[in-house]
Write a structure and sequence with these properties.
Number of helices: 12
Distance between the termini: 38 Å
Mean pLDDT: 85
Low-confidence stretches: 335-346
Oligomer: single chain
Order of helices and strands: HHHEHEEEEHHEHHHEEEEEEEHEHH
Amino acid sequence: MQQLDHLITRKIRSTYGRRVASPIIYCIFLIIVWFYTPMQDLVHPLAISEQAQIEALANDGKQYVSTKLTNLNFTGYTQSRFGMVTGYYYYTMRDDGCYLVILSPRTCEEGLPVIEEISIRASIRRQPESYAMLAEHLADDLNWTTNGFYDTVSDCIISEPGFGTYGSTLLLTCFFASGIYALMSIIFFTLYALFPVLSPASRQLGLYGKRSVLLAQAEEELATLPQLATEDMYITEHFFIAFANKAVTVIPIDEIVWIYKYSTLHNILWYHFSISYTLHITANKHLYIQFPKNMKSDIDGIIDYLSEANHNILVGFNEKNRKAVQAMPGVTRFTDGLIAFLKQKI
């Protein structure tokens, strides 16, 4: 059968060739996010001098900066959230005007009256909701009019607590963690597609001998005379082969110790529209695999043939078989929670 020649290798190549597309698309998405959102500035904030125009930067969308501030004076006001002080308001004169600065409690040692010089990473914020009230009180403290305060003090606030908040830290963590995962997926999926002998299917087969030899034997048996074939599962003289669940599986029949099926009823609201069947296979070397969404006739045929090919295979999910499998050395152990779940499904 020419269409079965090297089918396992071809399926491994095509499976991982398709799967590599998703992480590539995701990495492209992350690159777009990196360059077109403030994400990059969170990692590498723009370093600005005392001569930089803060308002001009804010108008250009520069939200996160690194700068040196001098001659900061405590206003006597604090910023609170959920009853906890998260920042202390200072004011400072820069070359481009007077600015309010919010410093974290640790930076200002919980309200030092005067700070001569300090370097911080901060976010540039426009007037917060409390700005009007703060302006009114500060103007009163300084014997200014409110209009005079607005004319003198910029409406941009330099906020140290606004840089690196818990939300932004979590966002960056997710960004880089998912990016690393996507890059690793691209590398491994590409390797599996180029060198099928390195794929999980081959490594799984390597539990029972030299993977290259067993893979070549399975390829030869599948190409010459498969004993049983369904849409995506095959049985040869010595192997059970499946191309399902976005993976390729090759298991020596002699290593299988337990097989059973359970049914799943699919419904929308109160209407039951289909039943699918899942094949479960437990093998030596702590190998446990399931193949969902199959037809009953296909699974029954697979179970019947495997049980005939290996009379030591336990068939059916019941307490007797479960205890027998648990007593076997080198076989997957089931938790009580999983057993309860399967009992509900059968």
